[in-house]
Specification:
- The protein is α+β, with helices and mostly antiparallel strands.
- The chain contains four helices and four strands, in the order ααβαββαβ.
- Helix 1 crosses helix 2.
């Protein structure tokens, strides 16, 4: 959104709005900008959430797993969790067949995985739009 439009919405002058945005960037509150891509236009039909349980939770194994995740282009997100699974990862696939490729060639090769449980998202009811600003 252009600064002039933001300034209008919050009743500031464009220069004051620009200064505040720069302050937020400098403080690390805003740490980047990104284009929002349409997954269907990219041919990605399936969002899959995968619960992963490791063979152990010692630091060396956790570190090895996390390093492997960081190197895996198929994994969009990875979160260390509490509960039954150690991690939840999110992947996007072109089809069920493509997910099988991701499962075999990427997820299945992650180190020290004891079990995986995949859940296909049918539809996003409230997709991620960013953190709330109060």
């Amino acid at each position: 959104m252009p600064i002039a439009e933001i300034a209008d919405r919050v009743n500031l002058s464009p220069s004051a709005c620009h200064r505040r945005i720069k302050n937020l960037e400098g403080a690390g509150v805003i740490h980047g900008y990104a284009a929002k891509l349409d997954k269907q236009a990219l041919g990605l039909e399936a969002d899959v959430f995968v619960e992963i349980t490791l063979t152990s939770q010692n630091q060396e194994i956790l570190d090895m797993f996390e390093q492997a995740v960081m190197a895996c282009a198929d994994i969009l997100e990875c979160h260390l969790t509490t509960g039954n699974a150690d991690y939840i990862v999110r992947v996007a696939a072109r089809s069920v067949t493509d997910y099988e490729r991701i499962h075999r060639n990427s997820l299945g090769r992650l180190p020290h995985v004891a079990s995986m449980r995949s859940t296909f998202a049918l539809r996003a009811i409230k997709p991620w739009k960013g953190y709330p600003v109060f």
